[in-house]
What does this fold into?
Amino acid sequence: MKTSYSPEQLKDPLVAQSEAIMRKCVHCGLCTATCSSYVILGDERASPRGRIYLINRMMKNNENPSRSSVGFLDNCLTCLSCMTTCPSGVDYVHLIDMARARINKKARRKLSSRLTRSVLAGLLPYPARMKTAMKFGRLARPLTRSFEKLGLTSIAGLLEALPQKPAHSPRYEKRSPAKGKKLKLVAMLPGCANDLLRPSINEATTALLSRMGVEVIVPSGLGCCGAIEHHLGEQEKAIRSARRNVDVLSKLHDEQPLDAILITASGCGSMLKDYAHLLRNEEGYAKRAADIAELTHDVTQVLDAITMLAPTQWSDIKVAYHGACSLEHGQKVTKQPRSLLSKAGYTVLEVPEGHICCGSAGTFSIMQPVISKALLTRKLNNIDKVEPDIIAAGNIGCINHMTKKSDIPIVHTIELLNWAYGGECPRELKHLESRIQKISGVMVVSRMDEYQ
Ligand code: SF4
Ligand code: SF4
It folds into this structure.
């Protein structure tokens, strides 16, 4: 893209970094067809290329963007499908992040939007506050339609996102020792939403890894990864969250060298893997943040590096694998979950239009409920076409979002793997137990490669 910024303008690091990214765009438009917001809205301004133009205009003229431009920058899901498609390597994610940080400083959003954003930034990263909010939210749930009619769609979206029933308290230890010989030591960031909404994910993870000779530590003092604040454009708060986690994890790594930092929520995984970028200008943090990012792996990357020779059961169960955007496009982890599920005896089905987002996208389903619902319907229709018994996904956001409307049970990939390798059957899948054949196999952990 031809850009023409003055040397004076380029002294602003935000402008200089944005300009360098935009210059790589060759306007080919290939990203448009794979853009999750464009497929719903059909408006060029709701596509990556259109948004790059809007950002260029905002930066170049140093102008306060119009409400309409802010709207188009806000209705990007940050699903990063465009980055997978782009032949030119445009670093769209950092561009939109910088644009949103600038909007937060310069533009005035609608009052309702500003209120919702501050409520979300003040609630979601804090599990204790969320627990209380969930109790009140369940009471207010019958008012969802009334809020919608009053035009308060984000409040309605927030109420809808809350689970119908409270989850049980997580039943895993802060330190799960390896059963038998200890082969590896990993630290796990449990993820704020996992333990609130679906504690069985981390329970299955610790149980499976422990049986495989991997000790799992959940260090005290960890907090939210910062993704919620980051995507809401609250850069300073996101940096604060990241610094706290880097302090805790690097101290632990100094005391007991870790083989990996493990994440079971791919939205959080993408964030930790980006700590090197987020903290690059923070004194005393750049190197440590890069080390933490390097050590961070999705749970399926860790498992894929362990040879599991024999599952203890086999089945004809068909699993539609839903590749969460943060895992597929954000972390480029595509092969491991599919291959682990197949090796564990499940028939893995590919979902048509798998690259398009389900509409969850962090706080997107709350802030943009209309587009989010359209994407959810599209996703579930595509899943129905392959007629699965189960849907598996690697991110709690997608699981929670799709569960609201899906008749097919949805579980985390790790819950299926834990079941196949001798662990508990997930409670939603009890009706499938008769389709399981037990095998008298012995699970052997023979090696642990470098993570891919
Ligand atoms: S991140 Fe997703 S919604 Fe945003 S421009 Fe890229 S493909 Fe479209
Ligand atoms: S695919 Fe990449 S280079 Fe092409 S228009 Fe989209 S962002 Fe620009």
